[in-house]
Give the backbone structure.
Amino acid sequence: QVQLVESGGGSVQAGGSLRLSCAASGSIASINTMGWYRQAPDKQRELVALITSGGRTTYTDSVKGRFTISRDNAKNTVYLQMNSLKPEDTAVYYCNGGSFLSVVRAQGGSWGQGTQVTVSS
Protein backbone atom coordinates (compact mmCIF):
# COMPACT_ATOMS: atom_id res chain seq x y z
CA GLN A 1 0.00 0.00 0.00
CA VAL A 2 1.28 3.46 -0.90
CA GLN A 3 2.21 5.60 2.08
CA LEU A 4 1.48 9.32 1.94
CA VAL A 5 3.38 12.06 3.77
CA GLU A 6 2.04 15.59 3.98
CA SER A 7 4.24 18.67 4.37
CA GLY A 8 4.28 22.42 3.79
CA GLY A 9 2.04 23.60 6.59
CA GLY A 10 2.86 26.51 8.85
CA SER A 11 1.61 29.69 10.44
CA VAL A 12 0.60 32.62 8.26
CA GLN A 13 -1.43 35.77 8.55
CA ALA A 14 -4.79 36.14 6.89
CA GLY A 15 -4.37 36.81 3.20
CA GLY A 16 -1.19 34.79 3.00
CA SER A 17 -0.38 31.69 0.97
CA LEU A 18 0.94 28.20 1.56
CA ARG A 19 1.67 25.27 -0.72
CA LEU A 20 1.09 21.82 0.71
CA SER A 21 2.72 18.71 -0.69
CA CYS A 22 1.66 15.08 -0.42
CA ALA A 23 4.52 12.75 -1.29
CA ALA A 24 3.77 9.12 -2.02
CA SER A 25 6.11 6.21 -1.33
CA GLY A 26 5.13 4.66 -4.64
CA SER A 27 3.49 5.48 -7.92
CA ILE A 28 0.26 7.46 -7.84
CA ALA A 29 -0.27 7.16 -11.57
CA SER A 30 -2.61 4.23 -11.05
CA ILE A 31 -4.58 5.92 -8.26
CA ASN A 32 -7.76 7.22 -9.82
CA THR A 33 -8.46 10.09 -7.45
CA MET A 34 -6.37 12.03 -4.94
CA GLY A 35 -7.88 14.28 -2.33
CA TRP A 36 -6.94 16.85 0.28
CA TYR A 37 -8.88 16.93 3.52
CA ARG A 38 -8.79 19.04 6.65
CA GLN A 39 -9.88 18.65 10.23
CA ALA A 40 -10.26 21.55 12.61
CA PRO A 41 -10.47 21.04 16.39
CA ASP A 42 -13.80 19.55 17.44
CA LYS A 43 -14.94 19.25 13.82
CA GLN A 44 -15.28 16.36 11.44
CA ARG A 45 -12.76 15.77 8.70
CA GLU A 46 -13.92 17.38 5.46
CA LEU A 47 -12.91 16.91 1.86
CA VAL A 48 -11.40 20.16 0.59
CA ALA A 49 -10.42 19.27 -2.96
CA LEU A 50 -9.94 16.28 -5.22
CA ILE A 51 -8.32 15.58 -8.55
CA THR A 52 -8.89 12.61 -10.81
CA SER A 53 -6.36 10.86 -13.00
CA GLY A 54 -7.84 12.77 -15.90
CA GLY A 55 -7.22 16.09 -14.21
CA ARG A 56 -10.79 16.85 -13.22
CA THR A 57 -10.90 18.91 -10.03
CA THR A 58 -13.60 19.57 -7.46
CA TYR A 59 -13.53 21.94 -4.49
CA THR A 60 -15.64 22.51 -1.46
CA ASP A 61 -17.47 25.83 -1.75
CA SER A 62 -15.52 27.58 0.99
CA VAL A 63 -12.21 27.31 -0.88
CA LYS A 64 -13.32 27.79 -4.48
CA GLY A 65 -11.25 30.47 -6.19
CA ARG A 66 -8.61 30.38 -3.46
CA PHE A 67 -7.21 26.82 -3.46
CA THR A 68 -5.80 24.82 -6.36
CA ILE A 69 -5.11 21.10 -6.31
CA SER A 70 -2.67 19.54 -8.75
CA ARG A 71 -0.85 16.25 -9.19
CA ASP A 72 2.53 15.38 -10.64
CA ASN A 73 2.51 11.67 -11.39
CA ALA A 74 6.18 11.75 -12.41
CA LYS A 75 7.10 12.99 -8.93
CA ASN A 76 4.40 10.94 -7.17
CA THR A 77 3.24 14.11 -5.46
CA VAL A 78 -0.03 15.96 -5.04
CA TYR A 79 -0.09 19.66 -4.21
CA LEU A 80 -2.55 22.08 -2.68
CA GLN A 81 -1.84 25.73 -3.39
CA MET A 82 -3.70 27.85 -0.86
CA ASN A 83 -4.07 31.59 -1.43
CA SER A 84 -5.99 34.31 0.37
CA LEU A 85 -5.99 32.22 3.53
CA LYS A 86 -8.55 32.91 6.21
CA PRO A 87 -8.56 32.08 9.93
CA GLU A 88 -11.31 29.53 9.26
CA ASP A 89 -8.84 27.59 7.09
CA THR A 90 -6.94 26.68 10.25
CA ALA A 91 -6.82 22.88 10.51
CA VAL A 92 -4.68 19.81 10.09
CA TYR A 93 -4.55 18.95 6.40
CA TYR A 94 -4.35 15.38 5.11
CA CYS A 95 -4.18 13.73 1.73
CA ASN A 96 -5.47 10.38 0.59
CA GLY A 97 -6.33 8.54 -2.59
CA GLY A 98 -8.30 5.76 -4.16
CA SER A 99 -11.38 5.39 -6.26
CA PHE A 100 -13.50 8.50 -6.76
CA LEU A 101 -16.14 7.23 -4.37
CA SER A 102 -13.64 6.21 -1.70
CA VAL A 103 -12.10 9.67 -1.76
CA VAL A 104 -15.48 11.37 -1.54
CA ARG A 105 -16.36 9.12 1.40
CA ALA A 106 -12.91 9.51 3.02
CA GLN A 107 -12.46 5.75 2.81
CA GLY A 108 -9.12 5.64 1.00
CA GLY A 109 -5.92 4.11 2.35
CA SER A 110 -4.14 4.71 5.62
CA TRP A 111 -4.05 8.28 6.88
CA GLY A 112 -0.77 10.09 7.45
CA GLN A 113 -0.03 12.48 10.29
CA GLY A 114 -1.11 15.50 8.31
CA THR A 115 0.35 18.98 8.29
CA GLN A 116 -0.85 21.83 10.51
CA VAL A 117 -2.02 25.08 8.93
CA THR A 118 -2.65 28.01 11.24
CA VAL A 119 -4.00 31.31 9.92
CA SER A 120 -4.06 34.30 12.24
CA SER A 121 -6.22 37.37 11.80
About this structure: The first strand starts at residue 4 and ends at 7. The mean pLDDT is 95. Residues 100-104 form the longest helix (5 residues).
